[in-house]
């Protein structure tokens, strides 16, 4: 795939996700700030598509509408954590019905039915919380066939439900351990992180995956890829944010972390080159910003070091572009 053939030049946008525990990724949402972000995404980053994620349905759809009004195609991705499969299904049913009304009114809206559900939801993988399931997954790797069977069975039930309410394209954000039945979907969706554990096989495995789905006439999008902006983050890209720790005095990062924005930018540049080589059809950088993780010059308090965002949120509600911002803008500008 040449650069000019990208079907989606995208980025992930966090409109407010409630993760396990009481971590709210965007405690305050503003329509005016969201609109300003979307204008920057469209005109400064040269994106044509945005993946909007949120827990609250009203906020999810309001953000999607603003993105459409600013000229961006939208993939909607509802995110619920530590709930049951039946709760996920009920939530998706409401999202699909309301998203269809938005699609009919504004056009160019697609639906991503979930992100790594075998970890985010209960009942697929051992562990009571999202964090616990993530920590236990490597230990219970022998259970992956069972975990994937449960995931496929769930998606086999929920995707027809979604399609009965939503007329646009449908996909799913799969972790590299997940094996959905992609025949259910219009687009293959991958969360694709290259780090020390998989570098040796990353390119060949992705090439094989893309070739297989292209032979079956299914486009392949990478809905998530990226890393944080500190030395050593690229070697642990999929879990680079784990340096963020909760303390009695609030969230902190290790004092020893050294900010390295060029590392984050170089990582994205290398991934863009690889995705072009293997002919991925659409890419979504993770992500634009993680608003709860603000920048500080005080050692240990620079929470932005644990963020995958390509802009650094400031305490006053503004943000500053990191080096990776310009890397993304350049690549997508060349892909127009």
The assigned CATH architecture is Alpha-Beta Barrel
CATH fold-level label: TIM Barrel
**CATH class, anyone?**
Alpha Beta
Mean pLDDT across residues:
95
Which of globular, elongated, flat, extended, rod-shaped describes the shape? globular
Using brief descriptors, characterize the structure shown:
16% strand; 9 helices; single chain; 8-stranded parallel β-sheet; alpha/beta; two-stranded antiparallel ribbon; TIM Barrel; 336 residues; globular
Structural features, described:
The structure is a single chain. The protein has one domain: Glycosidases (TIM Barrel, Alpha-Beta Barrel). It contains nine helices and twelve strands. An eight-stranded parallel sheet has the order 5-4-3-2-1-10-7-6.
């Amino acid at each position: 795939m040449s650069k000019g053939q990208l079907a989606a030049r995208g980025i992930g946008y966090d409109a407010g996700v409630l993760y396990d525990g009481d971590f709210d990724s965007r405690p305050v949402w503003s329509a005016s700030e969201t609109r300003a972000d979307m204008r920057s995404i469209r005109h400064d980053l040269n994106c044509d598509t945005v993946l909007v994620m949120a827990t609250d349905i009203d906020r999810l759809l309001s953000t999607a509408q603003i993105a459409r009004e600013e000229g961006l195609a939208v993939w909607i991705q509802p995110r619920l954590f530590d709930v049951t499969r039946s709760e996920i299904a009920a939530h998706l049913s409401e999202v699909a019905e309301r998203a269809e009304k938005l699609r009919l009114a504004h056009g160019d809206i697609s639906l991503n039915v979930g992100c790594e559900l075998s970890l985010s939801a209960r009942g697929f993988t051992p562990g009571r919380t999202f964090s616990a399931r993530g920590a236990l997954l490597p230990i219970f790797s022998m259970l992956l066939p069972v975990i994937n069977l449960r995931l496929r069975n769930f998606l086999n039930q929920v995707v027809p439900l979604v399609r009965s309410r939503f007329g646009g394209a449908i996909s799913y954000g799969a972790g590299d351990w997940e094996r959905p039945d992609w025949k259910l979907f219009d687009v293959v969706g991958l969360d694709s992180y290259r780090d020390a554990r998989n570098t040796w096989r990353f390119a060949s495995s992705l090439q094989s995956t893309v070739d297989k789905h292209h032979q079956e006439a299914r486009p392949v999008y990478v809905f998530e890829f990226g890393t944080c902006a500190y030395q050593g983050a690229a070697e642990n890209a999929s879990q680079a944010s784990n340096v963020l720790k909760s303390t009695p005095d609030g969230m902190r990062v290790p004092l020893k972390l050294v900010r390295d924005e060029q590392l984050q930018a170089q990582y994205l540049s290398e991934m863009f080159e690889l995705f072009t080589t293997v002919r991925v059809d659409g890419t979504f950088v993770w992500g634009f910003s993680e608003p709860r993780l603000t920048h500080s010059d005080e050692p240990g308090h620079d929470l932005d070091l644990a963020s995958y965002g390509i802009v650094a949120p400031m305490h006053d509600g503004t943000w500053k572009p990191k080096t990776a911002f310009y890397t993304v803008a350049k690549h997508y500008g060349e892909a127009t």
